[in-house]
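Take the subject:
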Amino acid sequence: MLASQSVKNGHDLSLRLDSTLQELPVWDIEVEIHLPGNKLIRFFEHEPLLPGVILTDHQQVVGMISRQSFFECMSRPYSFGLFSMRPIESLYNFLKPQVFTFPAHKLVTEATQEALQRSPRLVYEPILVKSSSGKYKVLDFHQLLLANSQIHALTLEKLQHVKKQSRIAKAGFRDLQNNYTQLLQNEKMAALGQLVAGIAHEVNNPINFIAGNLVHTIDYTQQLLSLINLYQNNYPHPVEEIATAIAESELGFITNDLPNLLTSMRSGCDRIVQIIRSLRNFSRLDESDRKLVDIHEGIDSTLLILQSRLKNPNITHPINVIKEYENLPLVDCYAGLLNQVFMNLLSNAIDALEESTVKYPGMVTKPQIIIRTGIIDDQQVVIRIADNGIGIPEEAKQRLFDPFFTTKPVGKGTGLGLSICHQIIVEKHGGQMDCVSSLGQGAEFIIKIPLKFQGFGK
């Protein structure tokens, strides 16, 4: 049994842009898997910040149990009595935890991006770090996020210095831009992970509970109403007290309205379940690899998330979305990244229409977004997203996909949205992304990606 650690304050780290996991504070507390489960309780109680314990079998690492999964299991009825005196191996086989392992030489920014792509249930689990000598240590996920934030701040500082001095080489500046873009994507993935995990845990479980009980409630209600009807048929002349109670309670109205009320409640539950499903489909945090997906499903999920913006009360008319979908086969792609492209393009279209209706109220009387999909030569999928806003001037269109270029006011845009979209389509999918626009004629973004993956992604 080993009980030492190399943990220090994460705020005191001196990190660089290319810092690796071996520079971060880690824990190396190990316990033999044949020992009783109450040994783990002692470790976690003695070290309040301990994220997880490495499990060994005759000094060979076989896995890890995190603090969160351990106490979640032990808090269940009978679990403490069942596992506290049995070998830890019994608990480990029962939990079957998924362990995420990184080499110690991996960059902090790369590790953060990959860790955030885990499923919402696992996204905050600690990570095993393996050194070149084969030694395993436990890294707290929050320490990884803290290091990523420090590198983010360092990147911004260096970018500001570069802008002031204007003497850095073009290649070096491009590297900083790419690093900042990657960090920004990490933050977006972290925000999406928190959103999906929070909604799934806090909303989906209660809604499932309500929806499941509604089925029985409707059945019980029908039985009770049938029983009342049976009493009325066989005892048509109730005593005065019952007759008065029936009149005061408006039994006839309740009998007619109660089934409708329960049906409305069930429709509301179904609607909430649909919204949660759309959020999961949009983020796809648990799908970091390519897979065959329905492009239309991703677009529709994005539109559902943006529904409140499409009905913005600050503009004269709600934005009308026209969908002209062709029959498309499943496309081999990075679904989560494509959904990020749809979100950026649709958000930009909404921004353009809002700006157009406010600045030029007589020009755009019926704001609309048209989404078209189709197939080219049975090899490419084309997606067109067009708006009837004021359009994009020629000088701005030439720099549309450049990093940090934006026509939006300070604080509203970073100038990275379209640059990231272009990178996702061109570099990740080997496709094309263009914009057709002129002043007064709206703007249309055209995306073309291959139906089948061809080994071009980075």
Remarks:
- Residues 1-8 have pLDDT under 50 and may be disordered.
